């Protein structure tokens, strides 16, 4: 199950796999915008400057580093403190208490602090921590897209929240068993989630769709403010 979340729509797709080919199909090979995502290798075909690694995911990884004890514990604690400062600065920007320029200036020492800690992690003896930090250094430019590009969020929570609800449904229902079933689930989840995203009434919309299917004139566009 894949999900594309944008300010206008949240679109679900059910595909046969979770590889690079499916990622290209969902995102679109010609897409030139920024995509917020986790560190899954299937996304590495994208230009690093058009990726934003999710800091909510990174926070969980740093917590795992902290729980390993010894040197990783110190590094993990330091990285978590930096994450705290990142989100405090981001909230101040969103609340209008910082200008974009002030936000970028405030982020400079935080970025330097993260890099110093990650470089130490990449040189440590603990294998898992070392591999994680080496990977972060490799994709360092994708950590800070939200600082460079206005309108980019530091997390992909806007996709994670609706996806969680869909995953819980799938676990309870055992998913779909046919092509037509998969297409129905994609469409109904897309409709319901997008409607809720804009505070629209789900039952009212579905009723309008049924009327239209029966040949009765009815406005039923998912895009907001378009009817």
Supply database-style keywords:
single chain, 227 residues, mainly alpha, two-stranded antiparallel sheet, two-stranded parallel sheet, 9 helices
The tally of domains stands at 2
* Annotation field: number of helices: 9
Q: Kindly state the percentage of residues in helix.
A: 55-70%
Largest sheet: 2 strands, antiparallel
Low-pLDDT ranges: none
What is the average of the pLDDT values?
Answer: 90
How widely separated are the two ends? 30 Å
Order of helices and strands: EEHEEHHHHHHHH
List the helices and strands and how they pair.
Blueprint: E1 2-5, E2 10-13, H1 20-27, E3 35-37, E4 51-53, H2 55-66, H3 70-94, H4 100-122, H5 127-138, H6 145-148, H7 157-173, H8 179-197, H9 202-213
Parallel strand pairs: 3-4
Antiparallel strand pairs: 1-2
Helix pairs in contact: 2-3, 3-4, 4-5
If you had to describe this structure to a student in words, what would you say it looks like?
- The chain is mostly helical and 227 residues long.
- The protein folds into 2 domains: 2-46 and 156-213, no CATH class; 55-148, no CATH class.
- It is built from 9 helices and 4 strands.
- The protein has helices spanning 20-27, 55-66, 70-94, 100-122, 127-138, 145-148, 157-173, 179-197, 202-213; strands spanning 2-5, 10-13, 35-37, 51-53.
- The chain has a two-stranded antiparallel sheet with strand order 1-2. Strands 3-4 form a two-stranded parallel ribbon.
- α2 (55-66) packs antiparallel against α3 (70-94), α3 (70-94) runs antiparallel to α4 (100-122) and α4 (100-122) packs across α5 (127-138).
- The longest helix is centred in the middle third of the chain and has 25 residues, at 70-94.
- The two termini are 30 Å apart.
- The model has no long low-confidence stretch (mean pLDDT 90).
């Amino acid at each position: 199950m894949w999900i594309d979340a944008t300010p206008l729509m949240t679109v679900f797709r059910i595909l046969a796999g979770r590889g690079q080919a499916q990622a290209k199909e969902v995102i679109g090979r010609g897409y030139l915008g920024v995509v917020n995502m986790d560190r899954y290798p299937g996304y590495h075909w994208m230009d690093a400057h058009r990726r934003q690694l999710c800091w909510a995911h990174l926070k969980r990884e740093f917590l795992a580093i902290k729980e390993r004890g010894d040197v990783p514990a110190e590094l993990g604690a330091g990285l978590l403190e930096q994450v705290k400062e990142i989100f405090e600065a981001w909230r101040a920007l969103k609340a209008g208490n910082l200008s974009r320029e002030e936000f970028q200036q405030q982020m400079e020492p935080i970025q330097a602090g993260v890099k110093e800690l990650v470089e130490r992690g990449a040189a440590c003896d603990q294998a898992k921590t070392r591999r994680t930090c080496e990977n972060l250094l490799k994709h360092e430019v994708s950590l800070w897209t939200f600082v460079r590009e206005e309108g980019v969020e530091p997390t992909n929570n806007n996709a994670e929240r609706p996806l969680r609800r869909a995953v819980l449904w799938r676990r309870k229902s055992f998913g779909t068993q046919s092509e037509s079933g998969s297409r129905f689930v994609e469409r109904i989840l897309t409709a319901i989630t997008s409607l809720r995203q804009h505070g629209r009434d789900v039952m009212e919309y579905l009723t309008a769709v049924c009327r239209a299917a029966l040949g009765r004139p009815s406005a039923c566009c998912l895009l907001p403010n378009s009817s």
